What does this fold into?
Amino acid sequence: RHNSVSVMPGAPKVKYSKMIFGQFIEHFDNQVYGGLYDPESKFADEDGFRKDVIEALREIKTPIVRWPGGCFVSTYHWLDGVGKERTPVYDKTWQVEDPNTFGTDEYIKWCRKVGCEPYICTNAGTGTPEEMSDWVEYCNLTIGKYGRMRAANGHPEPYNVKYWSVGNENWGAHELGARTVQEWGPMVRESAKLMRSVTKDAKLFAAAKSDKKWTLPLLREAGPYLDYIAIHGYWDPLFHVNNPAPYLKCMMKTDAPEQDIQRTIGILDEAGFGGGKIKIAYDEWNLRNWHHPWHGDLRRGFDLEARRKNDMASTYTMADALFSACFLNACLRHSDVVDIACFAPVVNTRGPIFVHPDGIVRRTTFYVFKMYTNGLEDYMLPVALEAGRLTQGSQSTAVFDVVLTGNADGTRYVYAVVNKDPEKSHALTLDFKSLGVKEPRKLKGTVLSGTSADDYNDIGKERVVPEERSFEVRDAAVVLPPHSLTLLRLEK
Ligand code: AHR
It folds into this structure.
């Protein structure tokens, strides 16, 4: 079948939110301690932060980082993590000791060094609406008990944290912090009212789901107080047990984010908050999560060893990179509603950066962020795609996933093209005519593909890195390599 992409006539170009390139960090495994924060490391700066991690996050222009959980936050009390005396506490969620040396002040300082917006997720498990708003006071006021407390802790200037979420997955992904549907809406409404009484222009989120049974009642009760619903997407929790991940199986998941977004938009419309009145924040997303019986549960305890296996650099291949590009493409296609996304997590576990004593590994997914944040133009132009199918058993997906971005005055365009085929190159006919661009003989592009679909980066082995290439254009078509993400640049 002939593969081609055409610009949709008359469709407006939309300036998309760069916040979709955000990240998430949780007090979980070695993401914070021994990850981004490690005073013992030879790479630590004067505050104990890993400089190499900060540099890498600046390289991918990280716009926002959500913290401190995740499920961790459902039993976290922020007051334990501020001030001179830090008492280690038992982290009931992950059943380990948290030293509390990395708390709110350290997080804000780290965000400033990274150059990103802080986004704080509050405790709606064992916490109260008042504890949440006290936290907003601590960050944003100069007066009152908590504003003064921050100043006394050495930070007289308010932090002006704008993004605040009520809870994490309180719909019951984890036993701690779970609420009933009936409890959730009123809990969110009360929390939002208190938080807004401190910071009027705060952007407020609530833990939601692309499921009507949970989210419609939430929106009925608390919709008028919210700016975002926070939803999570992990599309194949079990892949981590395979190493490498079964590539084709991952590719069969690449349409799922699009479907999930459409379902969620339908729920917002039905509740009367469509058209961007309330936006979507995918504040945790990744192809995989580690949830699996082998990794434990609250009753049986956690199998830390098994969990560590999820933290090998070699587990993250081109499958992860291409799924991630397809996820970001789906967000871009719905950029009027999808405003924020946080890859989960940013350091270690299944994140784009893997930290070791002698440096970091930029995993395959890191380079997807690098290409998108440095290589795309600022506006989205809707396109229609005609493409052949890639099949596995009874499942199939289009062989290509494509988005088109352009600059404000229409003089530059960048196509982002995923060729999901594990073995074959495919030709794709591009639309030059609708853009008013003369068909060139060659196009410049940046390609991420590695040497095979299962290729990965590891300590001392950075095999999957973006490469600059020149593509011949024949009859408006270019040939894209197998298992690749390519940015193609067009100029008038
Ligand atoms: O990353 C581990 C957990 O996955 C997070 O704490 C939770 O929010 C998600 O289910």
